[in-house]
Amino acid sequence: MVDGWDEAGLRAVRGALHARDGAALLAALDRGPVNEVLQLAGDGVAGAAARGVAGAAETAATFLGALRERGFRGDEELADQLCTAMGCAASPLPRPLAVDLEVLAMLLEGDPVESGGRIDLRTGECWAAFTDEWSPGPDAEEAEDPGPWLDVPALGSRAAYRDMELFVEEVGDAALADRLRSALGGRGGFRRFKDVLACDDRARRRYHLFSDERKRGRARAWLAEEGYCPLITFSAAHSGSVPSTLV
Description:
There is one protein chain. This protein is mainly alpha-helical. The protein has a domain at 7-96. The chain is built from 10 helices and 5 strands, in the order αααααβαβββααααβ.
């Protein structure tokens, strides 16, 4: 396993997730440390395990242990999904919804003055509040309870700022950590922090992975509080019984 993720490895993981190819995902996960992509790849691993893809159960167990050790917000909810995929869940999951956690995180962490939005509960599609394309559609009045839409609040950037503070504590290079810590002081901290990272490709890549993991986790936790979990759809290695939330 390489020390950290390079761009090619991350592209392989994201490509396998996009293609819903369980075997390709498991192969791609050998290209970097899984503890840095738990939220990114966890749904795919759970889906592959539920479908019986060779090696997926072992990878799911590895993910499960790493999630319980890490303990970011949203890690517990993802661990529950992995347990369901492995057949060891103690209680049923919330209702499945085919939502993109990355897009949902963008809505949740936008400017409270001009952001937020809603989720179409029929499709899982996220709509920003300011979009001109949003329309409830002709069947909205006939949708089943609790209604066709779930409002998404904009909670601001405080959590993202905290992510930067936490990342500084994870940086092994003391000089880089000092520069990043200094960058966060006062107005314009976001820009100065990213300017410092721009001079170190590996640190920049690690920060974006760290930040994305925490944002996805917060989106997952918020969704669970609303009574939903991401719907997992993945290619099957063979036919068999699959939990209804992992189809």
